[in-house]
Write a structure and sequence with these properties.
mainly beta; Immunoglobulin-like; Jelly Rolls; 2 domains; 6-stranded antiparallel sheet; 2 helices; 20 strands; elongated
Length: 294
């Protein structure tokens, strides 16, 4: 009666004759990794500083769009790639390239020798849709003395908008580098962004499907930390917000009312000499915000 060869998917040791008493032959082979995707990428400028604002990876069309600050010299940028184990990429990761004339092609070859061509494009941010745009809804105590740069310090102050596109950037400035903003896209779980004491473009939403999306941005930290200044959105476009509430709630109290220690220090960085006071605060998760249904 014929017997079927036994196939091992990895190299093994046969410890005794009895282990193969009923096997005519043994076939060994290695299961090589067939993945030829680019998993992540960052970009450094000509002096080695990482500068990307956002990265959009399209694994279906093998295309990547990297957004860098306005005014960046695109002729000498250095992309650094993360690729699957034992895969290779050409041109190599960490090699400077000129992106000023459009997309640059990279070939990723998997461990088993299967190549794929990726087109990498570096772009500057979309045009700013100013903070005075009538499609932006503001709620809370906000200083509108400069309509194009509203300023607010109170916890729980938020702004809401409906945008189109697969990503959304904001221009914002923090006076202290100790504020945190909670960002909620399409009513999903909040994502917290630490602020910096300079006007910057920050990607707050990415990898979205094409079409309409809602975004809510809430100041998570107390007024004593400092104020932030909002300058506007960078996205394909803004649409009118239709679910504007007719009533408002203003809560008075202490730090607990502001959401103090709601996160218990995790997962944010330590601030204020290690007490984690600001990083642990979340006005978005405070009882006042939950009551009014943020």
């Amino acid at each position: 009666m014929p017997r079927t060869p036994y196939i091992f998917t990895n190299l093994v040791s046969l410890k005794s004759k009895s282990a193969v008493a009923d096997i005519d032959s043994v076939i060994f082979y290695n299961a090589y990794n067939s993945s030829n995707n680019i998993l992540s990428v960052s970009v450094k400028n000509h002096i080695g500083i990482e500068i990307q604002i956002g990265v959009e990876i399209d694994t279906v069309n093998k295309a990547i769009s990297i957004t860098v600050p306005t005014g960046t010299n695109l002729t000498k940028l250095t992309p650094v790639f993360t690729i699957p184990t034992k895969a290779t990429i050409s041109p190599s990761s960490g090699q400077a390239a000129d992106f000023s004339n459009g997309a640059v092609s990279y070939t990723v070859t998997s461990e088993n020798g299967k190549p794929s061509i990726w087109n990498i494009q570096v772009v500057t941010p979309l045009a700013l849709i100013g903070a005075d745009n009538t499609n932006i809804q503001y709620v809370g105590r906000i200083d509108f003395s400069t309509l194009t740069a509203p300023k607010f310090a109170n916890p729980g102050v938020y702004l809401k908008a409906k945008f189109t596109g697969t990503f959304c950037d904001i221009d914002i400035n923090d006076q202290s580098s100790q504020n945190y903003m909670a960002v909620i896209v399409d009513e999903h779980a909040p994502v917290r962004f630490p602020m910096t004491s300079a006007k910057k473009t920050i990607r707050v939403a990415s990898g979205l499907s094409s079409g309409e999306h809602t975004i809510l941005i809430c100041k998570d930290t107390e007024a004593g930390v400092s104020a932030v200044t909002f300058y506007g959105f960078r996205c394909e476009g803004l649409l009118p917000v239709t679910d504007i509430p007719t009533r408002k709630i203003e809560c008075y109290g202490n730090s607990i009312t502001c959401g103090a220690c709601m996160l218990n220090g995790a997962p944010c960085q330590l601030v204020d000499k290690g007490t984690n006071w600001n990083a642990a605060n979340s006005a978005y998760l405070s009882y006042g915000a939950l009551t009014q249904g943020l």
